[in-house]
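Support request from a user on the community tier.

User writes: "When I paste my structure tokens into the form, the page sometimes reloads and wipes my input. The last time it worked, I copied everything first. Here is what I submitted, just in case something in the input itself triggers the reload:"
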């Protein structure tokens, strides 16, 4: 009997230690939405398994039938974690899906015995389920907005995006340096993601390319746990309507041997590998057949006076490939000030640098791409229309 009581105590011990009820701390938010895929990310407070339930937007109650479940798994095993990622595949283009997220505590796992606890889930009983819409490459027009260099000033995200009319845009783009350092996981959410999730990120496609400051800090190697989490790379392409976007990761702005990096960086090699990928992208029929070709990259290639190493790397490794690709515009950040350069003999496409206190608002109409910049006070400081090449 004593042995039985001891065994019972050991089985219940996790319950005593893990006394806090499971709850959703952050999220959900969307990543890598395309015509046929979407990834959903969220975080809970306790170790758990996680899954997404998906439903069509057909007017039925979410509880009308059992909805298919898509689990957070790796090599066929359900992940026991606090951060959950589910990649949905086989979706239909230009289609609205409803979803809810769920996580069930794993109190203990010994051998073939798993002791489960409570479940935390997003509300579909007294609130509308979350929903998202897949992209559509056949859509005649598209629109987007871009912010960058927020550096954890989460209080300016909402006014900037409101100025750009983000609710009417197809997508929101973050072009790097959303924090000053990835020192821990909390800064990801307190610095910009909690505000973004509250505002739009759980339902509107948003795409985030890393800046040089996200490469810094002891948590920097975990970047892909949160962004592009089920993709091969954190540089990527997006095709929506007539626009094909290439998101380039410029890495750090100083040489790899700079003492600030303590010998842990290898961005020169990383950018060279990325250039090989870029050559394949611009050679693809999907890219060539797109009306508008847009580059998003944090560090601009403009050869400004006293330019640092990162500028030279972008200029020397990416620009020669892009010069022959019919690029309509490159949108950058990094400088914390506005700068615009028309095509030149060295860079034969326009380069727009958005400041750290403004937002880019863009939309297509026929063969034209109109780009505006709104300052924090709502005033338009740049307004130019580009004709597709």
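"...and here is what came back when it finally went through:"
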């Amino acid at each position: 009997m004593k042995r039985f009581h001891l065994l019972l105590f050991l089985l219940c011990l996790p319950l005593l230690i893990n006394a806090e009820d499971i709850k959703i701390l952050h999220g959900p938010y969307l990543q890598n939405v395309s015509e046929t895929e979407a990834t959903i990310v969220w975080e809970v407070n306790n170790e758990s398994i996680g899954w997404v339930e998906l439903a069509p937007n057909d007017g039925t109650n979410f509880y009308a039938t059992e909805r298919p479940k898509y689990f957070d798994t790796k090599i066929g095993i359900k992940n026991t974690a606090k951060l959950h990622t589910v990649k949905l595949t086989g979706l239909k283009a230009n289609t609205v899906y409803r979803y809810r997220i769920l996580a069930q505590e794993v109190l203990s796992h010994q051998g073939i015995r798993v002791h489960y606890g409570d479940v935390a889930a997003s509300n579909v009983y007294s609130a509308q389920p979350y929903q998202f819409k897949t992209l559509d490459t056949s859509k005649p027009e598209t629109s987007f907005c871009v912010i960058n260099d927020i550096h954890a000033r989460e209080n300016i995200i909402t006014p900037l995006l409101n100025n750009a009319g983000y609710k009417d845009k197809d997508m929101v783009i973050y072009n790097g340096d959303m924090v000053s350092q990835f020192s821990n996981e909390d800064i990801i959410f307190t610095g910009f993601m909690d505000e973004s999730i509250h505002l739009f990120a759980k339902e509107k496609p948003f795409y985030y390319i890393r800046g040089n400051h996200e490469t810094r800090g002891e948590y920097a190697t975990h970047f892909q746990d949160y962004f592009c989490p089920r993709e091969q790379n954190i540089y990527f392409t997006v095709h929506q309507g007539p626009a094909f976007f290439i998101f380039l990761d410029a890495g750090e702005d100083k040489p790899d041997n700079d003492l600030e990096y303590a010998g842990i960086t290898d961005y020169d090699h990383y950018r060279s590998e990325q250039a090989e990928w870029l050559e394949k992208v611009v050679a693809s029929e999907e890219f060539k057949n797109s009306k508008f070709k847009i580059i998003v990259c944090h560090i601009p290639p403009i050869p400004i006076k006293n330019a640092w190493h990162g500028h030279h790397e972008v200029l020397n490794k990416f620009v020669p490939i892009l010069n022959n690709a019919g690029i309509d515009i490159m949108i950058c950040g990094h400088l914390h000030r506005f700068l615009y350069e028309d095509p030149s003999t060295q860079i034969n496409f326009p380069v727009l640098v958005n400041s750290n206190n403004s937002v880019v608002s863009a939309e297509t109409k026929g063969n034209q791409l109109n780009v505006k910049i709104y300052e924090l006070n709502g005033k338009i400081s740049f307004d130019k229309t580009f004709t597709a090449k």
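Agent notes: The reload is a front-end session timeout and is unrelated to the input. DSSP finds seven helices and 21 strands in the chain. Helices lie at 2-17, 157-163, 185-201, 223-226, 267-283, 285-288, 309-322. Escalated to web team.
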